[in-house]
Structures are given as structure tokens and as C-alpha cells.
Fold:
Amino acid sequence: MASPEEKRVIFRRYLDAVGLHGLAGAEAAGLHATEWYALSLLDLEGALTSGELSARTGLTTGATTRLIDRLERAGYVRRGADPADRRKVLVEPVPDALAGVERIVGPARGRIAEVIGRYTPEQQELLFDYFARAAPAYREASEEIRQAKRR
Structure:
């Protein structure tokens, strides 16, 4: 059984590897890390207003506008009017462009699927329970870090 210090090191290495994977995917797609994250958000959530995208990425409104401009020029997203409020802009992913991203990262993601596939169905349930609970906790922790930086 690993000691508390060994567990801390193992977990840190895991987190670093996940972060490195995201950076490598962004680089391979010709994107910055924040653009990669924004594109992933749009793929998972669907269309978001520029304000929602700003809040979710932690970027200022000006930086978010520049991010959307870059993603739009690269063909990953398009802007449209929000049908509920024509004053707002909706940003939505371009489906065919996302297929290109999946071709880039799909083979590497297959390695992770192989690792998860080695676990029993019960163990996989536990892993996915962790993923489901940890993701919002990491988002909240990220916001706490941003808030502390602003103080």
C-alpha cells in the first residue's frame, strides 16, 4: 500500500499527465490551451453566449472576443444571434471541424480507453463516479484560485 506521500506524488503525476495531454492536443490542433478548452466546452455544452464562454473560461470579455475571433478564423466555431435575445451572440462549434480535432486526439484517447477497459465494470463505475464528482470540484477550485488572485 502506498504511503500518503507516495499517493500525493502519484496523483500529482496523474494530474500533470492529464494537463500535458490537453496541451499536446491543443498544439496538434494549432490552438492555444484556452482555445482548446473553449472548444471542448462548446462541444460538450453546445452553443454558449460569449458572456457564458467568458465566465466559464475565466477570461475577460475582451479576451473572450479575441478567442472567438481566432476560433472562427480557424473554422472551429461560428457566431449567430441568440433567438431568445437578439442582442446576445451565440457561439457554436462547427461539427465538421470538430471531427478533425477528434482525428488528431482520438488515437491517444484510445490508450486511456485501454487503461479503463482493464478494470471490472464495478471498478469502472467507481472511476466514472470519481470523474463526475471531481470535474465540478476542479472547476470550483479553479475559480477559487482565480478569485484569490484578484484579491
In short: The helical segments are 4-28, 33-45, 50-57, 61-73, 95-117, 121-150. The mean pLDDT is 92. The longest strand covers residues 85-93.
